[in-house]
Amino acid sequence: MKIGLLAARFVAATVVLAGCERVEPVPSTDVGADAIAARAATEAGPVEVVVETSQGEFVIAMHREWAPLGAERFLTLVESGYYDDARFHRVVPDFIVQWGLAGDPALTAEWMNAYIPDDPVLASNTRGRIAFAFTDPGTRATQVYISVVDNVRLDSTGFAPFGEVVSGMEVVDALYSGYGEDSGGGLRRGDQTRIVAQGNTYLDREYPLLDRLIRASRR
């Protein structure tokens, strides 16, 4: 199924690339309890996602019981190919590795305001766990991060892990971190405008050492 069709199922929202106008959260209507229960009923055991990178591969085990809405959105993006050929645009030593802006800016535009409701925080942001990044409550969309240290201070601010790295954490640790916050930064304090508008064309020109997410797929 084409990514544009998948995104259309979630939301029709106005995308402001310049970041000069606030877009109100528009919750997804497709990721609800019934959809999650239907998927879970057809699958036995934990779901794993293999992430191939320019440094090697790592594996994420999904825990729907921790954050069912976040887990469902992440799997939807993986299955649609949204993350393929993205860059790990924010790698901060002793903090996190973040990605989730598509290499093709047209794909980012389709998804960046397709918000999902918040999950309660049931698991802690310890090393190796993955959660969605967001600005305000109700604004989780596509960007995710993996904690490379114990970030339990994030628990009280609404960041709900939905999975954890079960193999290849050394690959996550090896992702290029020399640019720190300069190559776009985070959603709250960074400036991602040019990544949103130009995608990999901008990142590869200005930050050529960033590692690549080659492919994410279900095992």
Structure in words:
This protein is of the alpha+beta class and 219 residues long. It is built from seven helices and nine strands, in the order ααββαβββαβββαααβ. β1 (48-53) and β2 (56-62) form a beta hairpin. The longest helix has 13 residues, at 68-80. The chain is globular and about 40 Å long. 44% of the residues are buried.
Features:
globular; 26% helix; disordered N terminus; 9 strands; 219 residues; 9-stranded antiparallel sheet; alpha+beta
So what's the overall shape? globular
Could you list the spans in which at least 5 consecutive residues all have pLDDT below 50?
1-29
Question: In what order do the strands lie side by side in the largest sheet?
Answer: 3-9-1-2-8-6-7-5-4
Major sheet size, sense and barrel closure: 9 strands, antiparallel
Between the first and last Cα atoms, what is the distance in angstroms? 19 Å
> What structural category characterises the helix and strand content?
alpha+beta
Beta content = 15-25%
Helix/strand order, N-terminal first: HHEEHEEEHEEEHHHE
Radius of gyration: 16 Å
Helix content percent band: 25-40%
Enumerate how many helices there are, as a single number: 7
